[in-house]
Amino acid sequence: MSASPPSPPAADTSAHSSTANGAVISLTVKDTEGWRPVPGSPGRSLTTPTLCSHQGNLYAAYAEPDTGLVQYRALHHEEWREPEPVHEQARTDTRPTLVSCAGSLWCLYTDRDTGLVHVHPINSSLPSTSPVALPYQQSCAAPSAVRIGPRRVRVAVRRGEQTVAIAEYRLPRRTGRAWSLKDQGWLTDDRFPQSMELAQHGDTTWALHHGEDGSISATTWSPQRFGPLWTMEGQRTSHTPALTSHIGQLWLAHRDATTGRLLAASSPDGHTWSPFSPITATAVHAAAPCLTSHAGHLYAAHLDAHPHETTSCPAALPQGQDSPRTA
Q: What is the per-residue pLDDT for 120?
């Protein structure tokens, strides 16, 4: 364990999947009939957005294509509200992340100039201040964050090709103050091309990533220790998979390395998984997907393969269709 590791290398932009003016963000939602597209789009983005449920609304945060300005929008009654900047200083070249905790919605992002991971509350009654850097955290990829308690959040950052740090923070009662670092662990026994995705399922924090060979691996983390690392058989991806907890199931989605489609599977315990089934019928833009649970529904976000189209899904994709299995 270490509180102050050495500085990481410069941000890795090779993993960013963007066009000159970004790509269209598309959302799908899972219902009893399968996956169906959500009307409209939050906009265009350099990278896949992050999704988060907060006080009855679904929020999306993303990097504006031309400037890297981090913006957010709320989906309210199937309509997207106007975009707002997280802060005029909030700019990034990687995907931001959102986490709902302590009555506020927080946005974390890797600053495009310094590589520092900054945090800022949005849509909050807290007084507005400049974004605050997380203690001891720099990253060369997108951060991931998950709420684990009333004022506690765990954050994963990629420090370099062989190191990912997972840190636990206690949130301040007033904005403008730094989050308090409570514990930190380092995972250095593999190579991490991009980010690591966190999800809280019951009392367990799951950490998911993909290796250089495209394999999907996961572990669990609790203070001062990691669980065993396991690899999912038969699945390959070139981008960080998505992970979330939804109605008693752990859900995983990834962009298949062969077909380019988004595939999803669920598990009650993170070890025994259902067959993978497609979220999209055709290939999507080469970028990491996103999953979140909101109002009893499971939502997925991706970038459209064709920037001028708004969706790459049929009206509803039946469950179980064309489903590769895991071991």
A: 93
**Least confident among 27-31, 64-68, 122-126:** 122-126
What pLDDT score was predicted for residue 9? 39
Residues 99 and 57 sit within 8 Å (Cβ to Cβ): no
What is the C-alpha separation between 8 and 191, in angstroms, rounded? 14
User: What tokens were used for 106?
Assistant: 């927080």
Tokens of 134: 């997380």
* Closest by CA position to 115, among listed 86, 84, 136: 136
Top pLDDT among 212 and 1 is at 212
Please tell me the number of Cα atoms within 13 Å of 225 on its side-chain side.
3
First to last CA, the chain: 34
264-273 confidence digits (pLDDT tens): 999 999 989 9
The class (CATH top level) of 23-303 is: mainly beta
pLDDT above 90 coverage of the chain, percent = 58
Three-state SS sequence of the chain: CCCCCCCCCCCCCCCCCCCCCCEEEEEEEEECCEEEECCCCCCEECCCCEEEEECCEEEEEEECCCCCEEEEEEEECCEECCCEECCCCCECCCCCEEEEECCEEEEEEECCCCCEEEEEEECCCCCCCCCEEEEEEECCCCCEEEEEECCEEEEEEEEECCEEEEEEEECCCCCCCCCEEEEEEEECCCCCCCCCEEEEECCEEEEEEECCCCCEEEEEEECCEECCCEEECCCCECCCCEEEEECCEEEEEEEECCCCCEEEEEECCCCCCCCCEECCCCCCCCCCCEEEEECCEEEEEEECCCCCCCCCCCCCECCCCCCCCCC
Q: Characterize the bridge pairing of strands 132-138 and 116-122.
A: antiparallel
CB atoms within 10 A of CB 248: 9
Q: Where are the domains of the chain?
A: 23-303
